[in-house]
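ESCALATION

Customer reports they have been waiting on this structure for their group meeting. Please prioritize. Original submission:
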Amino acid sequence: MEVSEKMFETAFLEFDKTGNLNEKVSSFKNHPLLIKHENYKYEIKDEAKSQLLTNTWKEADLGTGRILTCVKNSINLNSNNLIDWRKKDGFKKLRANKENEKLLFDFFKTKIEDENAFNQFYEIGFTYQLIAYLFFIKNPQKYMPISQTQFDKIFDSLGIDFKTSHNCSWENYLKYNEIIKQFRKHLSQRFQNVSLLDTHSFLWIYGFQFDILEDKEKTKQFTSFKEQKIFEHPLEIPKQKLELYQPKKVVDIESLTNDENEIDYLENHRRLMEIGDLAESIVLENEIEFLKVDFPVLAKKVRLVSNNPNLGFDILSFETDEKQKQIEVKAISENKNCKSFIISRNEVSKSKTYSNYYVYCVSEINSGKPKILRIKNPDFENNDKFLIEPLTYKITFE
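Update from on-call: job pushed to the front of the queue and completed.
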């Protein structure tokens, strides 16, 4: 499957237009667009390697669960968006038995043919994205991660007759990587030190245009809808619109009683704020007291930053090696073995952004000896550890 110069030029012109940049760079990895949007992939690759620790694997580890844990850790990175979080479930369900760990051992130690490993991963039930990711972290000079829907759009727009969606096979994956390698040859004629991952990022940035065009089309359709004179008066709603919704239940007014113990929501809110402030004070004092004995300089740098909710955490503190800690404080109550707290969308997002994010859960606040449970770099989307439920919804309309 030949990638022509015309195909490459089409992608390159759109790539440059997307960034609207004219900078001259020798190494493609230093291109401003890659630095801004895509170079995080190198961090994922490096962190995955550090979690795998394949050099330390021994055959004596087979069946102990250690190898499976190492591979899980390389997948469940907080910053890892190379696999849709829903696609990781297939690996979570994999049992830590000798057979499964031997497959992973042989694959990462290259004691088995890649084609054989691919087919066995597929038979186990791994998704295309998960299989491609495993091949990527094993050998990023040869194999790339995959997003079938996006790359199918990219290839189709360039006139490349090739589909990855619903085509999970070794032959399909080889062709996918071969196409990227051909684009790499073209890129290498313009830039120095172009890696396969750089080329993957080049195509991905080129693919941004589809998202932009889709957003523009949706905006255009919505604007067109608003411009239609559906109502003569803003409050005049046609009857047929109301008839589409039929209430299923009415309230029995006679059964209603006046409750003398009405809930004082303002008072409840004030009390929760007080508890939250107290929890923050407990953690702040605890962090300072811990550091000031042997690390007084660091202790002086500990700060309460909860007055800036955009940060997504409450206290800025430090590890003993001077590494920064971002601490979100939650006052919790324990129900038997279950613990729960409310977390905002921004806080979940920041838990994935910061490199050393903690949630400090404070219980028994009003006792003389409050307890603090520390959760480091939580992966809230890990269904094996956390149950996350939507409690409120934001509704937007015109």
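Sent to customer with the following note: The chain has two domains: 5-211, 290-398.
Escalation resolved.
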